[in-house]
Amino acid sequence: MRSDKITEEIMDAAPKLKIVVRAGAGFDNVDLAAATVRDIVVMNTPGQNSNAVAELVLGMLVFQARNHFNGKPGTELKGKKLGIQAYGHVGRNVARIAKGFGMEVFAFDPFVDKSRIEADGVVVFDNLEEMYKACDYISLHIPANAHTIKSINYDLLSKMKPGATLVNTARKEIIHEDDLLKILHERDNFSYISDISPDNRKTIENEFGDRCFFTPKKMGAQTAEANINAGTAAANQVIAFLEKGDTTFQVN
User: Fold this and answer.
1) Which residues form the D-isomer specific 2-hydroxyacid dehydrogenase NAD-binding domain (predicted)?
2) Helix/strand/coil for 248
3) How far apart are CA 68 and CA 61, in angstroms?
């Protein structure tokens, strides 16, 4: 499954259900607690759509840097500083593509060995706030969980440099939307772009025009290749679990 919600009610309607595989990296649309109680294995398929998401990130950065192609002069990405928050499958691909644009790439991820990030030619920040202060663009790739929900708040956003842009292709819930609106009101040199619509989308679009952009729906994994990769991986994981008991990508 992709975007459907697998709730307690759905599980009760399928008493023989043994496994649920989310064809993608995120799995916040599955009730993990309910699945665990019912001995249902939940898996994801990490990395299968990471290139698709990364390409979208850079496409959105170009779109924003060139003023949404409205005919007015824009800026180039070459030489600009990009900070990547979370250096997993998507973050690594974002770094790879951004370096091709000639960007200076930085990352913050306390869960990834520093030497692993540096091996990709990426500079590591040990302090998240310092990365927000230093970079022209920040790209978010953190999951939505108890530690990250609404963690992108006023304290962080207010530290971004003049003219900076925040791009979110991760999860809606990680953004503190009231704080986002506050920083947009206070600073006319801050931009926000995302493939996830905030609750106050119409207000933001009406008030801040070209400083913000949202895709019609979540678009990160919306490529033919990503759909095939994730779907094939999910099918293979179901087979491996049923035939061999393989739980390699279990998340509960």
Assistant:
1) 70-201
2) coil
3) 10
Q: How far apart are CA 90 and CA 93, in angstroms?
A: 5
Do residues 84 and 135 share a domain? Answer: yes
132-189 residue pLDDT tens? 999 999 999 999 889 999 999 999 999 999 999 999 999 999 999 999 999 999 999 9
List own/partner pairs for 101-110 with CB under 8 A and 24 or more apart.
101/58, 101/77, 102/77, 102/78, 103/77, 103/78, 103/79, 103/137, 104/79, 104/80, 105/81, 106/81, 106/82, 106/131, 106/134, 106/135, 107/83, 107/131, 108/83, 108/84, 109/84, 109/85
> Strand, helix or coil at 245?
coil
Whole-angstrom distance, CA of residue 216 vs CA of residue 5? 20
Transcribe 195-224 into DSSP letters.
SS--TTHHHHHHHHGGGEEE-SS--TT-SH
Burial grade of 164 (CB within 10 A; 0-12, 13-18, 19 or more): buried
Q: What would the pLDDT profile of 215-248 be if each residue is shown by its tens digit?
A: 999 888 889 999 999 999 999 999 999 999 999 9
Contact 22, 46 (CB under 8 A): no
CA angle 38, 234, 247 (to 5 degrees): 50
Provide the pLDDT for residue 236.
Answer: 97
Kindly report the CATH number assigned to the domain that includes residue 239.
3.40.50.720
Segments forming the whole domain that contains residue 230: 8-48+221-244
Query: Is pLDDT above 90 for 24?
Result: no
